[in-house]
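Blinded run. Sample ID left blank on purpose so nobody reads anything into the name before looking at the predicted structure. Input follows.
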Amino acid sequence: MSLSLIGFIIIFVIVALLVSGKVTPIVAMVIPPIIGALLAGFSFSEVGVFFDEGISSVISIAIMFIFAILFFGIMQDAGLFDPMINKMVALTKGNVVTVCIVTVLIAAVAQLDGSGASTFLITIPALLPVYNRLKMNPYLLLLLVAGSAGMINMLPWAGPLGRTATVLEMDVIELWKPIIPIQIIGMVIMLIVAVFLGMREKRRIFKEYGSLEIAASAEFALTENDTKDIESANKDNSLARPKLLWINAILALAVIGVLMTGIIPAGLAFMIGVSLALPINYPSVKEQMRRIREHAPNALTMASIILAAGLFLGILEGTGMLTAIANGIVGTLPGTIAPYLHLMVGFFGVPFDLLLSTDAYYFALLPVVEQITAGFGVDSVSTAYSMIIGNIVGKFVSPLAPAVWLALGLSGLEMGRHIRYSLFWLWGISLVLIAIAVFIGIINV
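Blinded prediction complete.
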């Protein structure tokens, strides 16, 4: 069999395994590539060389993920974000539009650790009672949290950029810097959407109940005790360190500032941050180890996936399969379409989220598209930005995202209705962002 055919089969099998949910991403990205390389005539020793080359290209990213997740997990445990979130909840005061705006802001703060699960664990218990008491549509809550978290998920320690940096073999901070304007613009768009949908929701409530006061009155009134219950649902207060709030804030800003300057590698910055955050907030060695054990599963899971992807990409590149696949596709695509393939994939990025897992999208689809468009002079980073921006906003509307099922479980809502309610808005936002990225030169046409 030709290298391109074996490469296609490997990618197809990996995508099928990831979509089926029968195995973990580690299994999917380790076994098929090794079998494929052996079928292509390569020896175990050559596979070992591909492994070394692949791992060496992603090890710095894996280290960054481990310590970034630990650092922001400790910051959340210590209550760094609690005052801001509680203040935002208190500011709603029963105003439907304000509730929508605050939802976007709380989700943005909660997503700073790059974990969708923690974002929903913070936002749903805090805000769902407010939505219920004001008779607001709870699917609007999921839409606003999903969109806002998607924008913040462009951070370098979140999954998509880490995966992309792994594929492109480049520094994740350098990959992130050019799309900071897109993040800012995206958050502005989310606030505008929140205002628009809030006003629409306000009209619906008025039409259904006659007035907002009736809808929010009696059993739906938000009392002071309710507000306290909502705030206390956010976190185990025994871990909070309110007296160290400003010290933790300075530490977090210092770590982010070091990341922006690029003085030291991102992994080292977060490693130092963790080493300072633990003794500052939890002097006891036992408590320090508990905090590490609490967040280690998320950190090691993400790092292990990155390392497995390193093997997968090392084999595809080392054997020449990736180049063979790209050449084969270029030979069949019309010359007028191939140079714009990255835009086409970015355009359908949100619907792709319904079909492909995050790992399949970035580790299986991105390398092929990048190889094809590179043959037509399109910069690899431009291709990556098109696929990231087109896809990332829809991450939390996908049934393949475990965090979405957590959100549905916390809120008691249905996946089908969430997709029907949110897909149109999130896809539209992604298309607007792609157009803006093309206009300001982040994506080359």
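Unblinding after everyone has recorded impressions. Residues 72-297 form one domain.
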